[in-house]
Please model this.
Amino acid sequence: MPERKIDIQDPFAGYTTQQKQQLYEALAELYSENKRQLFDRLVQYRTRHIAVVLEDIYQSHNASAVLRSCDCFGVQDVHVVENRNQFNPAGDVAVGSSKWVDYYKHADIHSAYNYLHSKGYRIVATLPHENDTMIGDLDLSQPVALVFGTELTGLTQEAIDGADAYVKIPMYGFTESFNISVCAALSLFSTTERMRRDTSIDWQMNDDEQLTQKLHWSLQVIRDGEHVLEQVKQRLKM
Model:
């Protein structure tokens, strides 16, 4: 999806589930039945139990590849810290995934961590330390935000010091680290698969959250979606 502003209220906030359903039914008339069925199916696999944080990613194609992996593994939220480098998804790499994944920008790592902590996330930095937990052993009982650093220097010291825990991916070759996009993909595969197998984890969005997500997706497939939404609201007297 386009960038979501943390300090701007969601356009569907304050509406009851019934009102959201009315809005969704009206908007869904404007695109195909196949697309509606796709939304209904995929939203069941969407999660905010795991989120991704990207700190100052230098190469746009790597950041875009992470977005694509998030979409493929059903991870809805990406938080981008722009210290020096601006985040601009590369369309040929993201392959449209920026339409379906929400990303939020933060001015620095501290504001990102503060926001995530306020939402109940445990912040986990990916580092090749000797004493790190293996990614396959990471505790997923509470929401987790996985933090990935820039290609050249990795995570900043501030990002490392502010994390609640650290994980590493096992490596057995001469190369000392994975590419950032590969690291993210491997981490997301491991964590999302284990999360979905664990029946004690409430990882799915609830019914209202799923409906809200389908509304946001609807705006992405309708031309001038936000303007159309306002027209629909007026017609339904909302």
